[in-house]
Amino acid sequence: MIHGKYLLPNGRVLRYSFHERMIHWTAAVSYVYLLLSGLAFWSPWMFWIAAVLGGATIARELHPWLGIVFSVAVVLMDGMWGKQMKETPADKGWWESIGHYIRNEDDKMPPADRFNPGQKLLFWGFFVNGLLLLLTGLILWLPQYIPWNLRILRLASIFLHPVFALFTIALFIVHVYMGTAMERGAFGSVIRGDVSRAWADHHHHSWFQQVLREEESSGKSSGD
Ligand code: HEM
User: Model-level pTM?
Assistant: First the structure.
């Protein structure tokens, strides 16, 4: 059996390197804190959440700093995955078959690359809304640096910051549901890093074929 950088000696396939997983979990943990503290600040009905996060004062102090951590993680994600998240001509066919995907008729779906178009949409959704949250968040955090004649930006940010947050919440709910409950084997890939060959072939056929080609051409054969 061939093994190398992606095909592991235990017969599994490396989907996410340690570096990729670290960046993913930095984004995930900081996002969860931002989400919970943001909900606490948003409505008096949810203010009780602040108690679980170390109290309202601590949560208010940490929220913008974790916003910076989240933004850095998202920019690093763009560095490592941005190219693979670009739209390809094959993506159109995938979207046209989305009905099969929703009905779990995976065998009727066109083969997906390392990331399917739904994952790409999630990535860009987080990227764009993440940057907009950073921008509006900075205005709310440091209003003293906004000139008086641009004060409209402060008002706009009060309204827009939660709007962008709501978009990410919708993405987050779908993402966590898909990654934990719907696609068995996916969660292990962001914990241990690997997936079974059957999983790789089933969910990301084109990517798996490319891995096989690359491993074969790099000539790293165990000889059996
Ligand atoms: C507790 C929260 C989270 C869980 C349980 C989770 C779970 C997962 C899983 C299982 C995968 C692998 C999916 C696959 O390869 O098939 C993944 C990938 C990914 N995650 Fe998360 N994630 C979480 C939070 C986040 C957050 C907050 C972001 C925002 C930046 C994010 C962005 C991504 C991206 C861009 C990928 C790669 C593409 C994709 O699979 O959608 N994740 N995550």
Answer: 0.93
